[in-house]
Amino acid sequence: MNEVKESLRNIEQTYKLFQQQQFTFIAALEHCRENAHDKIRPIASIGQVQSYMEHYCNNSTDRRILLMFLDICTELSKLCQHFEALHSGTPVTDSLLEKCKTLVSQSSDLSSLRAKYPHDVVNHLSCDEARNHYGGVVSLIPIVLDLMKEWIAHSEKLPRKVLQHVSVPLASTKCSMGATCPHQTTDTQTPLKTNKHRKLPKTSLKSSVKDKACLKPSWRPPGGKL
Questions:
Q1: CA atoms of 41 and 201, how far apart (whole Å)
Q2: What is the C-alpha to C-alpha distance for residues 72 and 69, in angstroms, rounded to an integer?
Q3: Whose CA is closest to 68, among 50, 41, 42, 48?
Q4: Helix, strand, coil distribution of the chain in percent, nearest 5
Q5: In whole numbers, what is the pLDDT of the chain averaged over residues?
Q6: CA-to-CA distance for 175 and 159, rounded, in angstroms?
Q7: CB-based burial, 172-197: b 16+ in 10 Å, e otherwise
Q8: Residues 69, 70, 73, 79, CA torsion sign
Q9: First vs last Cα of the chain: how many Å apart?
Q10: 164: Cα separation from own chain's centroid
Q11: What is the number of other CB atoms lying within 10 angstroms of the CB of residue 118?
């Protein structure tokens, strides 16, 4: 759980930097729409942003900010996979995770998505046209981050054994990759201990033979005198 919380904090820090450059992001999208002669459709999906960057982006500044957005979306998608591996889920956490996975998919329609208070990303857009075209894409990341925080909050309330249930298959995976596993170590040590116990009688026999040798009288010549 600590690892996913740390990953989420890192994504949030990157997003704060991105949020400070929202005007640059909107300008980059505007340039790409002009180059693509696509001024009618709103920015409706992550895949659309990807396509704009690959085919209609003409300067390094626009490419940098679009790539930053796409990288954050990729990290959010990876974090969804980590969430799935952490525990089997409850109806609440499953619902939250499913929403996250849907939102960060390449083809998900974001056009009607709007981040609400306390987020003000939509309010920072300059006019109604901008809000209609870019409201969804600027709302995506803050909404997903909120859902992930909520998922963590619910997951932390679960019994520890529920969170640890994946430790067994993970251990099996490590074993299959050649790593040392607890049950392998135990099996290896057991015969060693057994062998030691088996050798003990031999040692005791040798010592008893030496003891008997020490108890024998000194050698005397045939006449009986030393």
A1: 88
A2: 5
A3: 50
A4: 70, 0, 30
A5: 79
A6: 27
A7: eeeeeeeeeeeeeeeeeeeeeeeeee
A8: negative
A9: 86
A10: 15
A11: 7
Please report which residue ranges of 156-181 form alpha helices under DSSP H. 160-163, 167-176
How far is residue 158's CA from residue 163's CA, in Å, rounded to a whole number?
A: 7
Which pTM does this prediction carry? 0.70
Q: In angstroms, rounded to a whole number, what is the distance separating the alpha carbons of residues 26 and 73?
A: 17
Separation CA 80–CA 101 (nearest Å): 6
- CA 118/CA 121 separation, integer angstroms: 9
> At residue 8, what is the residue type?
L
- On whether the CB atoms of residues 138 and 27 are closer than 8 A, the answer is no
Cβ neighbourhood burial of 37 (10 Å; 0-12, 13-18, 19+): exposed
At residue 9, does pLDDT exceed 70?
A: yes
The string of DSSP codes covering 172-202 is HHHHHTT---HHHHHHHHHHHHHHHHHHHHH
CA 141 to CA 159: how far, in whole Å? 30
The CA distance from 51 to 44, in Å, is 12
The amino acid at 186: T
The predicted structure's pLDDT at residue 158? 81
CA 31 from centroid of its chain's CA atoms: 35
Q: Under DSSP, is residue 146 helix (H, G, I), strand (E, B) or coil? A: helix
Cβ atoms 175, 121 nearer than 8 A: no
Tokens of 13: 């820090």
